[in-house]
Amino acid sequence: MKLSDVMGAANLAVFAEGALVLFFAAFVLVLVRSLGAEEKARATELSRLPLADDQASAEAGERSAP
Q1: Do residues 33 and 27 lie in contact, with contact meaning Cβ atoms separated by under 8 Å?
Q2: CA-CA 20 to 30 A from 29: which of 14, 57, 59, 61?
Q3: 3-class DSSP state of 60
Q4: % the chain with pLDDT above 70
Q5: Cα(39)–Cα(31) distance, rounded to whole angstroms?
């Protein structure tokens, strides 16, 4: 009996198919979550974040001016 006979009879393809199904499910979950309306609002908020520091600095400068 050869090793290839033993491995062929072990039916290990089930593990590869299971991994494919898990990967596909995770991919769909990430895709749905990243394309949701809630994520779009958060992305818009985060895209303005670098400008928020400049606005805060300008406002602080206006307040401290005599």
Answers
A1: no
A2: 14
A3: helix
A4: 77
A5: 11
- CA–CA distance, 21 with 44 (Å, rounded to integer): 33
Amino acid at 43: A
Task: Name the residue ranges covered by the structural domains of the chain.
Answer: 1-35, 37-66
One-letter amino acid at 2 equals K
Q: Tokens 């309306």 — which residue?
A: 37
What pLDDT does residue 64 have? 52
Distance of CA 44 to the CA centre of its chain: 16
At 14-40, the pLDDT tens digits run 999 999 999 999 999 999 988 888 888
Amino acid at 51: L
